[in-house]
């Protein structure tokens, strides 16, 4: 779902889904430059039925819904070592592409990511699983790439306290 | 509470200081580690007075470091007096060449920064620290033990002096928050 933000979108959408018998599972909602955005997974009815149920909500043209069927849930692959990468600097084309390519080339898998542009400042925070023992080499390569882009990068091991 | 500053107050700087413009990210000075300073250097004393003057006129400002006024140096000021999250409070003070020598009781908390005006971030900081530093205009080392919000402010300012922003320490991809509402 994406559209002009207003109070009540989540309530309206989830109510329409509940009435249809669609069970809302994982979802994430935020505002991107003021646009309401919500990506959600629900189970139960087919895509066409969901699309039809959301019809009245998108009729005004202020909200856009894209409904697709997805495959069954897959077991998460064996995780590497969780790390957190922070990048910030003057906005320019290609920052995300360059730093995430370094992660990809080293087998790093991004599990969560946020980017924000505020004024001239660009900030990226990514959670990434790195193959065991690769963090130092990845950090070194990231520093080289960040230097070339004139941005700051830090790569830290994510702390996890299991209680 | 014993006074770690032995009676030192900002009046000892002998200078009202001048309000300086605050620089914002992505200014390169904010990401450069500042060199140690000679605390007895009149220029350092003046810088401390300017930082205090600038902090005092900035609403809600509880700390300001030299890189934030465009000077790469290990000097900062802190004043958490009256802040609801403060426990120990040492009033307004300035420190040179400060180092965290003990840090315990790590707690998450949301931080903002005058140099990153549009974002806040959740950052884990020690709620109890021991900091060693030198007061500007003196040669005497001080050892300051503090906690809660004053401890957080000290770690934030010491980070500035090392060329680090809270953006380098946010706790996760969902730990960054926008202050400005784009509507």
Automatic annotation (TrEMBL), chain B:
The keyword Metal-binding applies. It catalyses: N-terminal N-formyl-L-methionyl-[peptide] + H2O = N-terminal L-methionyl-[peptide] + formate. It comes from Phytohabitans suffuscus. The active site is at 157. Pfam families: Pep_deformylase. Signal peptide: none annotated. This is Peptide deformylase. It comes from the Bacteria.
């Amino acid at each position: 779902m994406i559209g002009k933000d207003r109070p009540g979108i989540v309530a309206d959408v989830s109510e329409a889904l509940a009435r249809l018998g669609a069970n809302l599972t994982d979802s994430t909602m935020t505002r991107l430059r003021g646009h309401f955005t919500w990506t959600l997974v629900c189970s139960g009815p087919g895509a066409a039925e969901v699309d039809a149920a959301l019809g009245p909500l998108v009729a005004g043209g202020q909200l856009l819904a894209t409904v697709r069927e997805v495959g069954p849930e897959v077991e998460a692959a064996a995780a590497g070592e969780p790390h957190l990468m922070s990048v910030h600097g003057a906005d320019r084309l290609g920052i995300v592409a360059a730093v995430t390519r370094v992660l990809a080339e080293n087998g790093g898998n991004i599990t969560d990511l946020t980017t924000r542009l505020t004024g001239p400042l660009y900030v990226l925070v990514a959670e990434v699983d790195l193959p065991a023992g690769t963090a130092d080499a990845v950090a070194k390569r990231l520093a080289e790439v960040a230097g070339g882009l004139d941005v700051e990068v830090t790569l830290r091991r994510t702390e996890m306290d299991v209680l | 509470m014993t006074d770690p500053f032995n009676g030192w107050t900002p009046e000892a700087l002998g200078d009202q200081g001048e309000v300086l413009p605050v620089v914002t990210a992505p200014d390169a000075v904010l990401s450069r580690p500042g060199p140690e300073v000679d605390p007895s250097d009149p220029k350092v004393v003046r810088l401390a007075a300017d930082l205090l003057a600038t902090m005092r006129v900035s609403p809600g400002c509880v700390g300001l470091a030299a890189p934030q006024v465009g000077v790469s140096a290990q000097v900062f000021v802190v004043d958490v007096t009256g802040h609801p999250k403060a426990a120990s409070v040492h009033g307004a003070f300035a420190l040179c060449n400060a180092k965290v020598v003990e840090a315990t009781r790590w707690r998450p908390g949301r931080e903002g920064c005058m140099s990153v005006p549009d974002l806040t971030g959740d950052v884990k900081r020690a709620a109890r620290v021991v900091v060693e530093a030198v007061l500007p205009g003196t040669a005497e080392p001080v050892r300051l033990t503090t906690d809660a919000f004053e401890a957080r402010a000290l770690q934030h300012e010491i980070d500035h002096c090392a060329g680090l922003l809270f953006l380098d320490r946010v706790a996760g991809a969902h730990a960054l928050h926008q202050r400005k509402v784009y509507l």
